[in-house]
Description:
The chain contains seven helices and 55 strands. It is mainly beta. It folds into seven domains: 7-213, von Willebrand factor, type A domain (Rossmann fold, 3-Layer(aba) Sandwich); 218-296, Carboxypeptidase-like, regulatory domain (Immunoglobulin-like, Sandwich), CATH 2.60.40; 304-387, Immunoglobulin-like (Sandwich), CATH 2.60.40; 399-482, Immunoglobulin-like (Sandwich); 487-572, Immunoglobulins (Immunoglobulin-like, Sandwich); 577-662, Immunoglobulins (Immunoglobulin-like, Sandwich); 667-751, Immunoglobulins (Immunoglobulin-like). The strands form 13 sheets. Strands 9, 10, 11, 12, 13, 14, 15 and 16 form an eight-stranded mixed beta sheet that branches. The chain has a six-stranded mixed beta sheet with strand order 4-3-2-5-6-7. A five-stranded mixed beta sheet has the order 25-31-30-27-28, with no helix packed on it. Strand 17 and strand 18 (317-323) form a beta hairpin.
Amino acid sequence: MPKYTSVLTSLCTLALTLGLAQAQPTYVELILDASGSMFSRLPDGQSRINVAKDVLQGFIAGLPDTPDLNVGLRIYGAQEASGAAACTDSALVLPLKGVARAALQAQVAQTRPKGATPIAYSLQQAAQDFPADGSKKLIVLVTDGQESCGGKLGSVLDTFKQRGIEVDLRIIGIDLNEAARKSFSGLGTFENVQSGAQLASALGRATEQVVKPVSAPLPVTVTLTSGGSPLTQGAQVSFQPALGGAAIALGPAGGRYGASLPPGVYSARVETAESGVQVFGGLNVAVGSPNAFTFEVGKVGAVKLDVSPLPPVAGGKLTVSFASAPAGERNWVTIAQKTDPDSAYLDYQYVKGASGQVQLSVPDEEIEYEARYLLAGPDGSSRVVGRSAPFTPRRVVASLDAPDSAVGGGQIEVRWTGPNNERDYVTIVPKGAPDGTYTAYFYTRDGNPGKLKVPLTPGDYELRYASDDSSRTFASRPLRVTAANYALSAPTTATAGSSITIKWTGPNNPGDYVTVVPKGAPVGTYTAYFYTRDGNPGTLKTPAAPGEYEVRYSTEAASPNPTLASVPITLTASTFGLDTPATAPAGSQLSVNWTGPNNPGDYVTIVPKGAPIGTYTQYFYTRDGNPGRLQTPLSPGEYEVRYSTEGESPNPTLFSRALTLTAASYKLEAPSSGAAGGRVQIKWTGPNNPGDYVTIVPKGAPVGTYTDYAYTRDGNPLSLPLPQQPGQYELRYSSEQASPNPTLFSLPFTVK
């Protein structure tokens, strides 16, 4: 097993009993990367996932039982292997509520790397995990890769700001390459590590501002049994720290074995005359726990394990069959490097019964492995009771077949050969980019050949066959990207708000478009546009404001959308005018003569004086004729008639004319009463606007209520049937011009 210098010192700094620096509530969220690449090895030969688990479990073991400390755990990449769901595979498996030590350690221990690396999504979700208050908040993200789902890391902290949350973000990279390290530039505090000891130290530094360690060892006792009977003497027992360092012997004491150990993760080595040496893994020595373990050291018949296919494909799957297994509900089968300690494991599956089979993921390594059957103890420990014959995965040779050159922004077809493991992909990257770099890509499982979008920038690139589960490049092929020809032909001047015809020259790649923007507008700006795929020439609606502009050929293939060609255009002002009376009765119809370009979306409306730009009430489109007619509002007051357009948002006011609406006179004349079921004659006085009507309703009925009614346009006087129910009513003059229909005049009426 690899050794680490000063490991006990690191563990004391990291995972001993911790006390809060202040009494105020403190929230610490641990985010663990469970992407498929976590099966890869560190330079010292240990798998990344095993090291991360040991360090996090050791850290959790030393957390204090204090009401002011709240520790939660979020894991990404553990549920979905690939596809769109893999990019939202991030779960808060334990909330930020106290220190649920046993549950935290169990969640870490059972994590199985599987999927993608949705770091940005995970951090955005983490913003919802914290309370929106002034408490101390810390996120520690442990990852072995860069964002793999296209998330924008630079803006993830905005989600916290939107909730009014200040959070200290610490990112610990596990053996990241240069490209991955650079991807975290400017985001929180970053540190890269290459061993378990370095990871433990980095985690200690990340948390030291909110917790402080104490170094008191904890009493540990071990009870041995053989065939269920106590074994009180003649055994040698020692505990080995999971991250390396000197083993600590436990001495006999009152029929048991004991010693004081720092909090952390250990494996126990037990040697007896009957069974020889046995190793029990998965032991957590933790603050607030009894730290009492019982090991059954009696002989257990070896479980038979067979592996197929032989050799398995590196990075693929294998089937492990087992037979003659002991009883148990939480026994499990795993694979590990043959030289790994018994406590180490990679992919695993829980099993039941005397025989069966499981399918496990194989790391992308050509080194010697073995399958192991582990017998689970009631105290959480486990021991290996069966091993397969050793096997060495074999890498399948990969190759790529594609054009030697392509036009920037276009699409190419790529044929491939290779293992076609679940998360293998083909991508295009700049020549010499670090392993693990990717831009556009397709998964090999989606078909052969696949299609790739070519970068816009000319230069030397590489096509690469790679995998989300490996840091290496399986195959590479050079690709020369050449520049496309772009040009635009458009008028040099046009009327603002008009439509112009534009001819274009370009590759017509998916997402290519032509737009018009103010001169010198930032790259990526657009207003009205058309896609080149929709035809040549295309038509653009120009902005309503006169001035200096540019017509641009751009594309959605990059962000911000680049300008690939540009020509200037001057937009001249149109002549606008409105001819209306200076005053009109409220609720009447108004005839409006207009002058303007009559562009698509141009309209005339009436609004209260000084209303915000873009406001409208009744309106007519200029395309519907000249003059147009407007229904004026019912409320008297100061208004504006506006010439506007839908060509921009908010719709601009291109011309305005003041209008004063005067109050109309309303009156009803009728008898004061009438017989139930009879009729009543009503004389009315009013503007007789479209939608004006007279109705009878119960006294005090809500505004807008109506029963039988007659439109004023139907004559004067009007005749209305009376209700069958005697009582107090109102005759009302109302209008459909507003909702609810307003009461413009009311006259009491009694139905007898």
